[in-house]
Structure formats: C-alpha cells, structure tokens
Design a protein that fits this description.
The protein folds into two domains: about 1-175 and about 345-380, Rossmann fold, CATH 3.40.50.2000; about 190-340, Rossmann fold (3-Layer(aba) Sandwich), CATH 3.40.50. About 45% of the residues lie in helices and about 15% in strands. The protein has 15 helices and 13 strands.
Length: about 375
Amino acid sequence: MKVLFLITRAETGGGQVHVLDLIRGMQGSCEAVLGVGEEGFLADAVRALGVRVHVLRHLVQPTRPLTDLRAVGELVQLLREERPDLLHAHTSKAGTVGRLAARLTGVPAVFTAHSWAFSEGTSWKWKAVGVPMEYAAAFCCAKIINVSEANRQLARRYHVGRAEQLVTVHNGIPDNGFRSEPGAGGECRIIMVARFAAQKDQMSLVRALATVQSPCRLLLVGDGPTRSAVEAETARLGMTDRVEFLGERLDVPQLLASAHVFALSTHYEGFPISILEAMRTGLPVVSTDVGGVREAIADDVSGYLIPPGDQELLTRRLETLAANPALRARMGAASRRSFVEQFQLDAMVRKTLEVFRSAIPARSRAAFNAIPATPSSKGAGSK
C-alpha cells in the first residue's frame, strides 16, 4: 500500500510533527511518499527516514488562484508518476489542492482537518472563504479525519462533509524519557511552545504574567510574524527580565522538562500537539478553552481551562500554580496519566490505518487488509 502524504509548509509546527509521526509510525505498514511545498524541518526529517520527498514549488501560502491551479497541475503529474493507492492531505491549502488533484486522477483521498478555517476565533473573511471551499472539497474525498470531536461537530454544524465521511481520530505522539518536576520549589518556569502568528495569543499571556506576584519566568518558544509586537509589549510592561524569547528550537522535550507549567494562550485550535507534549512530560496545563482542548485537559484536574478573552482568570490561574508547588505536582501527575492512557502514537496510527482501509476501493482493499492492523513497535515508538 503506497500513501502520498501532502502538506503545504515544512516548518516546525504541530501539523508537520503529526505527519512525521504518522510516516514514522506506519513504517512496515505502508510505503510512504511526501509531497510538501518547501524545504525545511519536515522534508529533512522525512528524508532521514529513507522516505522520498517531492517539493511542489507552486504549493504555497497564501491563496493565489493562478498559483494554486499550477499546484493542482503539479500534483496531478506527481500522482501519475508515483501512482499511490491513497492521498492523505493535511492543512487547508494542501487539502483543497490535494483533493482536487486526487479527483482528477482517480486516486482515493483522505483529508485531516487539524483546525477548520471557520473555527470559532477565526475572522469572518476566513469563514466566508473557508466554508464554501471546504463544502466543495468534501465531495472530492472518501473520508475526513478530525483531530478532535469538537472539530467533527463543527464540520457538521457548517454542513461540511456527510456524517459517514467524518471521523474523529485524536492526535497521538510517541512517548519519551523526558520528565518534568512541576512540584520543585523556587522560581516557577512557565513555558509556551507555539509559532508567533495571528492564531496564537502570546500577547495576552505576557500581559497576564505582568500582574502575577509570585516569582515566575515565562519561556516563549517559537518564531513568526507577531514576535516583534510581543517583544515590544514585553519591554513596555517592564517584563524583559521575566520573559525569554527562545526562537525555534529542536530541544523542546528538554525545555518542557525544565519547566513547571505549560501555557497555551490561543484564539482557536483543533487538538494541539503542544499540549500533548506537555502532558507527556508531566506538566500541568493552562490553556484557552477552544476547539478540542477540553478533550485532553480536565479543568481543575490536569490543569485549568480559560474562557477566550478572560485575561483576569488567566492571571489568577497562573498565580495559583506559581504559588503552589504541591498543586502543580498533583496536576502534572494527572496530566501524565491522561497522556499514557489516551494519547500515545500507537492508537492514532492504528485508527488512521483503519480509515485508510475504509477509503480505498473494494478491489484494492484485499491487498491492504493483508497488512498487520497494528504497526511495529519499532516504527511507532521511535522518536
């Protein structure tokens, strides 16, 4: 069974890590090929696995009708050359281009919606474009994987996809040996790992921290277009000695293990992998209550959920955790238990393979059904 995975960007992001983990976890279960719009982290990491990578130079952001049509043509040519049994597309642009090209070539397609363009918190312009685009693209694929039940319900609300098309497969990640000590005393280290972009809201986190009285420090991992504005606000608030901008890092597991609290201030999400990475490490999580976040974090058990826009409550929750090491330790232990029980990579890979089986035509299914349902532990557990 050959699967062509398709995604637009190769940056260090949740969607890219998701694709990398799927390709790694499915080794031995299918032959993978990657199509991506640029060189970068994902392309390099997939090549290191011995997997072929094709860079599609017209698969770019933002939306450009002529360029997008060229991307469809480019992908049609690739599909005819590679002749995959299935196309698995990720993110909105690659999802639209990929599903259209798959329809034109007769290749079955599956689309994973990491977050919908019409999610709560997105602009009306995104919704005006996103709803009709996703409604039409749904006719060009066999299945749509939603990374959270909240995502699936949102698709149903906007009549995107038929009920039988829409499935929920929670994100999962491989375990590792990095563990935090959230109950350790001293200055509380709060960490947020996210790209600096309009979707994320590092600004509110910095402003909330400005009124936290207990000793604490904020580590912001990531880069992007909104970073300079957040840095300027940090300086304006006199917080430069309490906030560190670490940029893009490849040692995120180690950084998480050095922290006491994970925070995610964001406008919208599907089912963020960054939260799963924090849970894996054993950190309590403070997050905006959007998308499928509450499907991972139990409020007042493994962390705190903050209604969007409630900066006062965000400040209080950060203060509570910064001042209470025993509470951090208890919530961190609950967070780790939830990860172990629900969000490991093997489960996600197994469920995704089941979706693949249901998406391919009956004449091709017999050969695919001969593949073991559970991927090898070596492929699924390596990192």
